[in-house]
Amino acid sequence: MPVQKSDGLTIPEEGEWKKIPITWTQSREDHIEDYLSIEFTNTRGIHKPGQKTGETEKTNFLFVSEKLLDKFKSSIKKTDTGFKITVDDDYLFGQQKGGKNRFLVYHDKKRVIYQHRFIQGTLVAISKQAADISANLMGDKLHPWAEA
């Protein structure tokens, strides 16, 4: 079941939060702002030892506006392995039809950003990382068959 209001989520330490640019147009004006992409695990289905385990959600993403980072940090609780948050009205969500792949957004609700902008921003960030990795791993030139 997708993440819902009042669910408890776990997120990793700040060092694992990735900065991505999000672009959008609002009132005929182009905007760009950095958001932090943070993986989360929905802990709704995790119970005490010996109890039946409920339904858990696969890891998904939370996007936090850098401009609201201090406010966000004041609303989360530190744990041994990262942080715990509770989903409330401060969060918006995007998803595929049927509630699949639901992700969360923590930002100024006056912004009108369509959900595909967050997916595009994530893909751009992943593409840059992949290009950097491939340049380091496969930095050799192509060879003619004569060198085989």
* Helix/strand/pairing category: alpha+beta
Q: Report on the biggest sheet.
A: 8 strands, mixed
Helix amount, in percent?
Answer: 10-25%
- % residues in beta strands: 25-35%
Which regions are unreliable across 5 or more consecutive residues at pLDDT < 50? none
Overall morphology: globular
What gyration radius follows from the Cα positions, in whole Å? 19 Å
**Record field, number of beta strands:** 8
What is the first-to-last residue Cα distance? 53 Å
Order of helices and strands: EEEEHEEEEH
Tally of separate helices: 2
Q: Estimate the mean pLDDT confidence.
A: 79
Characterize the structure shown:
It is a single chain. The chain has 148 residues and is of the alpha+beta class. Helix content is 19%, strand content 34%. It has two helices and eight strands, in the order ββββαββββα. Strands 1, 2, 3, 4, 5, 6, 7 and 8 form an eight-stranded mixed β-sheet that branches. β2 and β3 form a beta hairpin. The chain starts with 7 loop residues before the first strand and ends in an 11-residue tail after the last helix. The model has no long low-confidence stretch (mean pLDDT 79).
